[in-house]
Structure formats: structure tokens, C-alpha cells
């Protein structure tokens, strides 16, 4: 068995994460869902940064003449205060900055434990809007009194995240549902976060000197703006739900169109446990869940030409019936078939161990700047890290170190000279979330499988037979689906 292990340390990443997530705060005088102007948000960001710097300075001064034990205690207290302050700020901020904090919570196991645990709470335990305001928003958006639509609706949300919060309810015809309501003013708040596209483009160009940042920024803005439209999310979710209907391991909750608007999304209610509980589960369950998540991501990409661009634990649930439920389809990329074929060309050159062909394909697809001053083998070896799970037909264990190494390869141009000659075309933009999200989950699970064999089941050009027990169960589901009358068969 091969073990995928990264080579780089964590200190630099921790510094970057803490610095970045510390750039947003709404003061206590503001509503947690108020949309601030860009100037107000800049002021609040500055206050948080100044407050944290002052706290660190005082702690450093107190530590100079202290004993080792006292220094450790002071550092631990600082880490707890920092976690509470930064994460409380992000929770109140909502929007794009809170999403950044959610992502940071599962990227780096080397982060101070108080910060990592506090950031993890943003995935499902962020400060909600007051219940009366939430219910008023649901009623206003759906255009009818609540009692005409629901027999009951819980005032306390079951989850609160960066754009909206979710309430359990029972409809007048007896359906148990999850009602997601968007925070009022959140669209304006996110617009303020994303308003300075010139600065974002400059940052991206520093990381990728060969990058055309304008197209990439436009792609990211378009996807995030789509996430604010719950009607768009409903359309996305229905495509996934139709395709995976009856699947033995995957549950995408059905959408209730009669109770869905641009600001409210109503779906089946999933009874289950938070996904994070699987990290402490027995080995067999961890491996089973890891394979289900991997199959869902790559089957959707290779067979539906869809990628759900927000793969993190807060969007998954361990359903009581043993399936994994996948939630939140606001950030979905729809690919053309020829765009997915571009990924296939790179994969095939990589697994064929053909450096010249890989380089040519990377240049053709604008992933690599033509004429980069490196040998074909150097280019091949650098990119191979992204494909290491599928390079060989053998079991591979994913580790958290592997995810950290990919993160550095993606963002640290000082460490990796080849990165200065790479680019991220719009087609590839959201696919990077696999490296940052999916592989992080697999690493925390210690996921071990023959990923190459599983992938060959999912790739169109190989269409291999099942290689695992879960694969056999999935094949039976596919056969049953294919046998359905054409009129009742879910779309591809």
C-alpha cells in the first residue's frame, strides 16, 4: 500500500489562514445580518486587526520574564481569545468572509486547536438571525401566512451558515421539510466583499504570474452570485436529486417547488448526524463514507458533467438510514461535455506516464504557459502531485499532510517555481475545490482505497466493471435505472 504524504510544514499556512480570516468583523452595535457599506466593513476589519495585534503585543510583553509554565498558559489563553474574537466576528459578518472561515476550518490540522474548533462551529452553529425575523422572512417571501402552509415550524434553526439558516417544519399536508431562509441584506454584504475585483485580480496575479485574472474573477463572481438565488439552487438540486433517485448510498433531498422562492428553499428533511461524527467512527464506517463521497463527486463530474463546488463537511449529513445526504447546491458548475474531456486528456497523459504529451495538453488548455523554462519531466513531476491518488492501480492512503502539500502547490509561488508559469482557466476554477475540500475530508478520514480502480468505473472512456462492494451495489442501481421506461427515467 502506498501512503500519500506531503513534504512541507504547517507554520506558513497557519499564519496565512489566521491573517486572512482576521479581516472581517461586525461590531456589537450592528445587526448580525446588516449589510455594511464597503467603508464600514473596512473600518470594522481594521478594528479587529488592531485589537488582535494589541492583544498579542500585551501577551508577548507579559511572557518575557515569565516561567515556561506561565508562558504556555498565557499562549493558550491568547489562542482562546483569538479564536473567540475572530470566529465571533466571522459569524456575525456572514457572507463571503464567513465562507472563508468555514473553509479554513478543515484545511489545516496544524492550526491551534481552539481556532480550528471555533472555526468548525461556523459550518452549522453560526449565530442565527432572531427567530421572529426568520419566520417573518419566510412568510414574506412565500407570500402567505405561515399557518396556511405549515402545521408546525420550529423557531430554533437546525443550522445557520454564511448565507441563510434552516428551520424544520411540517407542511399542512404532512410533509416533514427543511426550510432554508436567506438572511435579509446578505446579497449586499457579499457584494461589498467582492466589490473590489481589481484588488482580487491583483492578488491572483501575484500567485499566478501567468494568469489572466479577469476571466477567473468573473467566473468566481458569477458562481457566488448564483448561490444567492435559491431558485437557481432549487434547479441544481433537482437535477442531482433526479439522477440519484433510489441510489443505495447517496441521498439528495427532493425540492418542494410550491414552497420555494428566490429567498426561501424548501426540501425534504434529513434525519441524521453531523458528518464530523464519522471521524470518530470505527474504521470500516470511515472507509465506507469516504468511498461514497469520492464516488458522488466524480460520478457527478464524469457522468452528469456537474460539480457541486462547495465540498465541505457542513454540507453533508450521515442519514439515519445509512446513506450520506448531500446538501447545498447553490454553487454548482455545469460543464459542457468537451470541457470534461479536457480533464480526461490530462488524466490520460498522466496515467500513461507521458511527460511530453502531458505538457502539450497542459499548454493547449492554458493550464501551463507555453515555453516555461523547465524540462518535460519536471513539469510532469510537479503536476503529478494532483493526480497521485490515481497514478497507480493499487490502494493509496490519503493523509492530511497530502492536502496541505496540495494547498502549498496551489498558492505558494515562492516554494514552487513552476507555479509562476501556471494558470487557472475558468473551466478549472471550481475544480480546485476538490483539492481544498474533498481531499481534506478524505485525509481526515485516513481514506484508503484503490482510487484508480474506482475512477475507472466512473470515467466514460474506461467504463470499468465494479471494483468494490459499494461499486457492485451502485452497478445494480444503474442497471435498475436503465431498465426503467424512458418516460420515467431520470435525466443523465
Polypeptide structure, described:
It is a single chain. The chain has 492 residues and is an alpha+beta fold. The chain folds into 3 domains: 2-122, no CATH class; 127-160 and 163-195 and 229-269, Phosphorylase Kinase, domain 1 (2-Layer Sandwich), CATH 3.30.200; 334-488, no CATH class. The chain is 52% helix and 10% strand. The protein has 20 helices and 14 strands. It has helices at residues 11-21, 38-63, 68-93, 95-104, 113-120, 131-142, 146-149, 186-194, 197-207, 213-227, 230-243, 283-304, 337-351, 355-364, 376-384, 400-411, 426-429, 432-445, 451-458, 469-482, and strands at residues 2-3, 150-153, 159-160, 164-171, 176-182, 250-251, 264-268, 272-274, 306-308, 316-319, 324-326, 332-334, 396-397, 448-449. Strands 2, 3, 4, 5 and 7 form a 5-stranded antiparallel β-sheet that branches. β3 and β4 form a beta hairpin. α3 packs across α4, α13 runs antiparallel to α14 and α14 (355-364) crosses α15. 41% of the residues are buried.
Class from secondary-structure proportions: alpha+beta
Shape: globular
The residue-averaged pLDDT reads 78
Which bin fits the share of residues in helices? 40-55%
Number of helices: 20
- Major sheet: size, sense and barrel closure? 5 strands, antiparallel
Which residue ranges are poorly predicted, with pLDDT under 50 across at least 5 consecutive positions? 1-37, 105-110
Distance between the termini: 35 Å
Calculate Rg over CA atoms: 23 Å
Tally the beta strands: 14
Which percent band covers the strand fraction?
5-15%
Count up the domains. Answer: 3
Amino acid at each position: 500500500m502506498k501512503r500519500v504524504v506531503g513534504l512541507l510544514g504547517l507554520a506558513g499556512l497557519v499564519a496565512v489562514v489566521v491573517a486572512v480570516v482576521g479581516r472581517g468583523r461586525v461590531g456589537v452595535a450592528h445587526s448580525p445580518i446588516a449589510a455594511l457599506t464597503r467603508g464600514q466593513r473596512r473600518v470594522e476589519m481594521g478594528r479587529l486587526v488592531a485589537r488582535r495585534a494589541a492583544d498579542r503585543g500585551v501577551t508577548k510583553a507579559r511572557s518575557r520574564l515569565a516561567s515556561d509554565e506561565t508562558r504556555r498558559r498565557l499562549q493558550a489563553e491568547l489562542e482562546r481569545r483569538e479564536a473567540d474574537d475572530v470566529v465571533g466576528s466571522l459569524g456575525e459578518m456572514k457572507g463571503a468572509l464567513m465562507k472563508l472561515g468555514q473553509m479554513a476550518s478543515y484545511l489545516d490540522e496544524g492550526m491551534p486547536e481552539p481556532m480550528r474548533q471555533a472555526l468548525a462551529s461556523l459550518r452549522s452553529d453560526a449565530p442565527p438571525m432572531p427567530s421572529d425575523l426568520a419566520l417573518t422572512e419566510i412568510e414574506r417571501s412565500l407570500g402567505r401566512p405561515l399557518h396556511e402552509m405549515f402545521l408546525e415550524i420550529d423557531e430554533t434553526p437546525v443550522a445557520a451558515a454564511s448565507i441563510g439558516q434552516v428551520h424544520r417544519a411540517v407542511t399542512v399536508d404532512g410533509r416533514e421539510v427543511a426550510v432554508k431562509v436567506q438572511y435579509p441584506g446578505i446579497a449586499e454584504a457579499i457584494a461589498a466583499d467582492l466589490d473590489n475585483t481589481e484588488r482580487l485580480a491583483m492578488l491572483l496575479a501575484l500567485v499566478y504570474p501567468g494568469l489572466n485574472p479577469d476571466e477567473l474573477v468573473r467566473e468566481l463572481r458569477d458562481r457566488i452570485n448564483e448561490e444567492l438565488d435559491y431558485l437557481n439552487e432549487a434547479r441544481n438540486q433537482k437535477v442531482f436529486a433526479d439522477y440519484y433517485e433510489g441510489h443505495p448510498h447517496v441521498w439528495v433531498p427532493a425540492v418542494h417547488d410550491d414552497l420555494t422562492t428566490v429567498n426561501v428553499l424548501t426540501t425534504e428533511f434529513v434525519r441524521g448526524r453531523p458528518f464530523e461524527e464519522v471521524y470518530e467512527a470505527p474504521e470500516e464506517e470511515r472507509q465506507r463514507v469516504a468511498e461514497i463521497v469520492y464516488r458522488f463527486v466524480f460520478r457527478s463530474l464524469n457522468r452528469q458533467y456537474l460539480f457541486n463546488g462547495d465540498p465541505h463537511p457542513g454540507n453533508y449529513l450521515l442519514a439515519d438510514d445509512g446513506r450520506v445526504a448531500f446538501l447545498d447546491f447553490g454553487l454548482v458548475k455545469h460543464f459542457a461535455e468537451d470541457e470534461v474531456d479536457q480533464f480526461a486528456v490530462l488524466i490520460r497523459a498522466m496515467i500513461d506516464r507521458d511527460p511530453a504529451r502531458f505538457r502539450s495538453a497542459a499548454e493547449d488548455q492554458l493550464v501551463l504557459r507555453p515555453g516555461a523554462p523547465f524540462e518535460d519531466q519536471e513539469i510532469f513531476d510537479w503536476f503529478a502531485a494532483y493526480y497521485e491518488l490515481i497514478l497507480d492501480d493499487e490502494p493509496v492512503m490519503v493523509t492530511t499532510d497530502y492536502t496541505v502539500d496540495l494547498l502549498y502547490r496551489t498558492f505558494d509561488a515562492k516554494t514552487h517555481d513552476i507555479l509562476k508559469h501556471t494558470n487557472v482557466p475558468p473551466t478549472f476554477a471550481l475544480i480546485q475545490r476538490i483539492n481544498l475540500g474533498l481531499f481534506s475530508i478524505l485525509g481526515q478520514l485516513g481514506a484508503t482505497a484503490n482510487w484508480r480502480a474506482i475512477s475507472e468505473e466512473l470515467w466514460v472512456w474506461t467504463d470499468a466493471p465494479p471494483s468494490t462492494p459499494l461499486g457492485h451495489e451502485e452497478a445494480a442501481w444503474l442497471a435498475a435505472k436503465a431498465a426503467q421506461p424512458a418516460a420515467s427515467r431520470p435525466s443523465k
